[in-house]
Amino acid sequence: AQTVRLAVVAGDGIGPEVVAEGLKVLDVVAPSVGLDVAPTHYDLGARRWHATGETLPDSVLEEVRGHDAILLGAVGDPGVPSGVLERGLLLRLRFALDQFVNLRPSRLLPGVASPLAAPGDVDLVVVREGTEGPYTGNGGALRVGTPHEVATEVSVNTAFGVERLVRDAFARAQARPRRKLTLVHKHNVLTYAGDLWRRTVDAVGAEHPDVAVDYCHVDAAMIYLVTEPSRFDVVVTDNLFGDIVTDLAAAITGGIGLAASGNVDPTRRSPSMFEPVHGSAPDIAGTGRADPTATVLSVALLLEHLGQADAAERVVRAVGDDLLRRGDLGPRTTSQVGDAIATSLA
Ligand code: NAD
Ligand code: IPM
Ligand code: MN
After folding, report:
1. Hey, do 1-99+260-346 and 114-253 end up sharing a CATH topology, with the first three levels equal?
2. In angstroms, rounded to a whole number, what is the distance separating the alpha carbons of residues 265 and 94?
3. Is residue 107 lining ligand 1, measured as CB closer than 6 Å?
4. Nearest protein Cα to ligand 1, atom 36
5. Domain 114-253 is classified in which CATH homologous superfamily?
6. ipTM of this complex prediction, to 2 decimal places
7. Cβ 286 under 6 angstroms from ligand 1
8. How far, in Å, CA of 265 to CA of 284, rounded?
9. Which of 3, 125, 126, 340 is most buried as measured by Cβ atoms within 10 A of its Cβ?
């Protein structure tokens, strides 16, 4: 059996609840394809911060680096100042491990109700930049608390960072049946960054003549995601636009409880990290109402990344079975959903 060293960061709120179900499913599927999953559970998040003031100690980061992959639940807690855990733990992992491809597929699966009257055939993947943009902390504040306060948060876009992401997005578009790539940006206002993204897409696009290239300003993309989402195949975009676009893409394809993601380092120099798109949902934490499906589908992305495409496909099919049956069942708890998916797999 091939051993998979899996770092598990369950995190805060519903994070541990949904991660338990993701691991439950992984434990069923892994042995059937000869994988031996060896998890290391990390106590990181609000509890640790309250107890020790630590978010992600250097020594823990170095330990995590030695794993084959990471499964993360969610971080963030109303009792911790906003940004402390989001930046100090989640973004630190994405940045330090150079997970520059934030992969967020959205597919409207059979049996799933979309809030759109006529969603059409929605099957898109957002390739979101994961290490740059307005997320880098390149800003500051002057005269805080005075009427003359000035706050800046400058978006960082490097030729290196944009090109490697755009290349990855074209490769993905090339491998999909529709071979279409849409750059989502705002070059009518964000002159410098927009120009870099546009020139990069033009240049890499010239090397991929069989990929159809389209462009949408991000505001118009919000219209089309609601009126005609089937026009999108691969969407390539920056870190902040991608964050926003993918919550809407989730909402139109069955909700945030189904949206999976991978933070991928395609060079494989560091472990990639798989997590639901949603957060710690403090409003429902502890009630057993969190849908673990997004985490289970993130486990499928993890399996695919590990070269286990068949196992990944089986997990997606088991989720598909569960989604088809959902309409006939009443409300279920987080673990009942996990059990149903695991049973259908076994
Ligand atoms: P959220 O995604 O946690 O919640 C938004 C809404 O979706 C809430 O109504 C919540 O109940 C619902 N929801 C989320 N996941 C669900 C699930 N699996 N099943 C059913 N309903 C679900 O976003 P938020 O409220 O903006 O943020 C809460 C906290 O999470 C904040 O601290 C935020 O910074 C953090 N956050 C973390 C991540 C992450 O760790 N990747 C992502 C987003 C937000
Ligand atoms: C997400 C989250 C994170 C992001 C936050 C919590 C840093 O919203 O994973 O979508 O903005 O990337
Ligand atoms: Mn988000």
Report:
1. yes
2. 9
3. no
4. 279
5. Isopropylmalate Dehydrogenase (3.40.718.10)
6. 0.99
7. no
8. 32
9. 126
